[in-house]
Amino acid sequence: LEYDFGEVKLIIAGELNTYHLAVLSSPASNYRWAYLYKNQKNDVFLDSHVKFFDMIGGMYKEIVYDNMKNVVSKFIGRNEKEFHPKLLILSNYYGFNINATNAFSGNEKGHVEGSVKIIRNAVFAERYQFDSLIQAEEYLTNKLMKLNKNSTINEEIKHLMPLKPTFELASITKQKVNSYSFVQVDTNLYSVPDYLVGKTVTVRNYVKEVKFYLNDVFVCKHRKKDGAGEVSIDINHYLTTLARKPGAIRNSTALKSIPMLKSIFDNNFNTNPKKFIELLEENKEKSIDELLDELSSYGTFNSNVI
């Protein structure tokens, strides 16, 4: 397996920024995959490995890198290298060998260097504007599936080493849920179900998501916020409280955090908030897009009820 980073300029929500592609490629099967990140830091570097291993479901005997700082901590003399301790831990856990190329010898991992260019051109030359990073990630995944349609990766997987359970990359802390059913992680706030107010939960903080547990039982997760002082709210976390006080939903922060949902409420359920909350409960397993579709159609076809 070969590994490299590449850069791509994208317009996300109207703002132009440089993003980073963690690219993994297998010359034997001509298989190329990539993950989109906001930086090339060590936690991103490790995260891309674990994601790829879990997706493939097997383990390669050797991974080839260049001399990036996530791989080589320092050079000892002309030829010897000291590998990054976190990469050594990962390689020891999964059982793969680390092969760092000679300096200025990109040809030693030519497949992945070519893959960076191929993916950048085949995926983001065609489209580079997206409403959100999530949308860009989904677009990348769909394009990669088409790009790999002639790959022999399924045959190669049969010959990989068995895969160990997922390597845990999260930073783990204990946090108390405040009176508004929020938990602070770094400098941002994330909602959890309102029955947890006052309780202490376990927080697993990953590169792109935050997961919450009570007594080792999974409770919920959020897409991680990258800014400072931001708030991530799931309206489903407040259904118990809102069911007791349905009128409170009109001015709730949870409802206001989803403008389209707030619009549906104002237009179709303003006189019957109880029914609106009942529908939220019935559809709480759906994604936000599915929920919006469901409630929009309900307002259109069931206006006589409300």
In short:
This protein has helices at 42-56, 85-94, 110-124, 133-147, 153-157, 239-244, 253-256, 259-269, 273-282, 288-301, and strands at residues 2-12, 15-26, 31-37, 62-65, 72-76, 80-83, 97-100, 129-130, 171-176, 182-185, 188-191, 200-205, 209-214, 217-223, 231-232.
What keyword list fits this structure?
single chain; 306 residues; alpha+beta; four-stranded mixed β-sheet; four-stranded antiparallel β-sheet; 10 helices; 15 strands; elongated; disordered C terminus
Can you put this structure into words, describing what you see?
With 306 residues, this protein is of the alpha+beta class. It is built from 10 helices and 15 strands. It has helices at residues 42-56, 85-94, 110-124, 133-147, 153-157, 239-244, 253-256, 259-269, 273-282, 288-301; strands at residues 2-12, 15-26, 31-37, 62-65, 72-76, 80-83, 97-100, 129-130, 171-176, 182-185, 188-191, 200-205, 209-214, 217-223, 231-232. The strands form 5 sheets. Strands 3-2-1-8 form a 4-stranded mixed beta sheet, with helices on both faces. Strands 9-12-13-14 form a 4-stranded antiparallel beta sheet, with no helix packed on it. Helix 3 crosses helix 4 (133-147) and helix 8 runs parallel beside helix 10 (288-301). The longest helix is centred in the N-terminal third of the chain and has 15 residues, at 42-56. The chain is elongated and about 75 Å long. Mean pLDDT is 89; it is low at 300-306.
Structure class: alpha+beta
How many β-strand runs? 15
Question: Looking across the biggest beta sheet, what order are the strands in?
Answer: 3-2-1-8
Instruction: Describe the global form.
Output: elongated
**How much of the polypeptide forms β-strand, as a percent range?**
25-35%
Count of alpha and pi helical runs: 10
Along the chain, the helix and strand elements come as EEEHEEEHEHEHHEEEEEEEHHHHH
**Uncertain spans, ≥5 residues at pLDDT below 50?**
300-306
Question: Quaternary state, please?
Answer: single chain
Characterize the main sheet. 4 strands, mixed
Mean pLDDT equals 89
Please give the share of residues in helix.
25-40%
Q: Give the N-terminus to C-terminus distance in angstroms.
A: 59 Å
C-alpha Rg (nearest Å): 23 Å
